[in-house]
Design a protein that fits this description.
Number of domains: 1
Order of helices and strands: HHHHHH
Structural class: mainly alpha
Number of helices: 6
Mean pLDDT: 93
Shape: elongated
Oligomer: single chain
Number of strands: 0
Largest sheet: none
Radius of gyration: 20 Å
Strand content: under 5%
Amino acid sequence: MKKLLESFDRIMNIMMFLAGIILIFIMLSVGLEVVLRTFFNRPQIWVTEITEVMLLYITFLGSAWLLREGGHVKVDIILNHLKPKTIAFLGIISSIIGIFVSITLTIFGFSVTLDYLHRGIYTPTAMEIPVSAIIVVIPIGSLMLFFQFIRRTGKFIVGFFIESGKLKP
């Protein structure tokens, strides 16, 4: 089990690294676009379209990693006034909701991606990118998020029982 979790963490780290590389690419391409458009009157048609797609990729490649690191939005002003047992209970509830949302995104994401792939749907833009290539990151990222929510739920359950005195740390 430990090796499986280490492999899972490694995959999440790689996905986050890719998201960082994509962010750098976006920054450089938008900067290039501004310079070329402003000083040389040579706008690049691909920059806006690729940037839109890459923002989707950053979101879904990094979401599971961000959840693992505790970086998602939470209301600290409320959590700071709650008991650890209550925080653990709310963590269990929010993680279970996250499990249902992420598995729904995974299932429907795979379904829609395969449908678009089989039908050969392309974006109606200058670049005509296959839509399946754009949205394939949604089920992949959602599946990773699903597994991370399961992992997070387990940690909150253990924390809840430790705070209840039913389990020793």
